[in-house]
Specification:
alpha/beta
Length: 396
Amino acid sequence: MSISSLPLSYCTNVHPGVTIDEVIQGLHQYASEIQRAIRRPLAAGLWLSQPVISELLANETHIARLRESLANSQLTTYTLNAFPYGDFHSERVKENVYLPDWTEPKRLQYTLECAHILAQLLPEGVEGSLSTVPLGFKSLSSKPDFQDSCIRQIIQFAKAMDQLHDDTGQVIRLAIEPEPLCVLETTPETIQFFAALREAADTTGDRAAVDRHIGVCFDVCHQSVEFEDVAASIRELSDADIRINKVHITCAIEVRQPRPESLTALARFVEPRYLHQTFARSSGGKVVHVLDLEKSLCERPPVGFQDAETWRVHFHVPVDAESLGPLFTTRDDLRKALVQIQLLNYAPHLEVETYTWGILPSGEKPSLVEGIAKELRATQLLLGNLALNKNGLSAL
């Protein structure tokens, strides 16, 4: 039973980065300043978009520059966010973030290239992880052989990671990240997919490679938005021998007993860049959803939302916040998830991933450095309390 002893990571997808110069600028302008603010070691969970990966591979001096920048800032890197393939900061990202999906050769090639870059950045003796799309977005995944195509490519990735280990001694694991309204959305769907993946790997003789290198990224707010019991979800994944290679420490928006003032406040979070899948649960347990958070939903809630007891919105909000004016957050689920993660017999990578600082509603809010530093300090406090009391929620 343990929590990772590696420096806590924060994901740099919060910064624009479609060139190597932008990535390095983000490290100097933000990551090193955040580390100075929290006064403890910090890991940079790099987001390297496909254009950046291409730039790095085109000239080996660029990788040396990136390594040097990390070293000069005294930052470590053990995980990459290989989920967004293109520009994560364009005017409209929405469902395009799930493209290319895992049926596309471009997705496999990009992820392999991320792995090879990460192998050159890892500290000695530390394993690496890559978070990735949950196969694809449900409404964009209608190919009749969609799952089989994904499985074939993921097996290829696992085999390549075995070869990378033979060549370099580095272990890098894929972390497939379930997300609302995606092909892998719920914990039962994820368990079913891994059963099919393993069956296929048994047939091809690649089961050992799949077991060694393929697991999940458990993004806490994603399963909270689904109204899953996050502790039970983690137990179910563990019982199915599905390794949680990475945990995204995240919180979503929660609306309790929706009233005009809370829905007015929620409407301020409507924005055009990212997809904010929105779910509602009645007192009887019925769950309904809509694709995205829109002002019309807040102004004229449809049947199922009107009489719902609770709404939850896939909008990453600062993980230190219990509430946002009349709105609440799913921070209590974060506490429960970390307690359960500690009970695993291995230590997943831990990363704070609040990528929405630039689109939070205007008003009084700290600078990016101050805001992320506050998140990290609050998370370290949660983790420190876990270390002091491993047997329950009372210390949290």
